[in-house]
Every structure is written in C-alpha cells, then in structure tokens.
Design goal:
mainly alpha, 1 helix, 0% strand
Length: 21
C-alpha cells in the first residue's frame, strides 16, 4: 500500500473541493 499515492489523491480532491466552493 502506497500512502504517498493516497495522499496525492486526497490533495487533488481537496483542491477540487476548494475550487468548487
């Protein structure tokens, strides 16, 4: 399990969320 990948995906989701707002 690669934690880095999960972190990257999470960061992208956060960016999308902030952009949506």
């Amino acid at each position: 399990v690669n934690v880095n990948t999960s972190n990257e995906e999470n960061q992208k989701l956060v960016e999308d969320f902030m952009k949506d707002r």
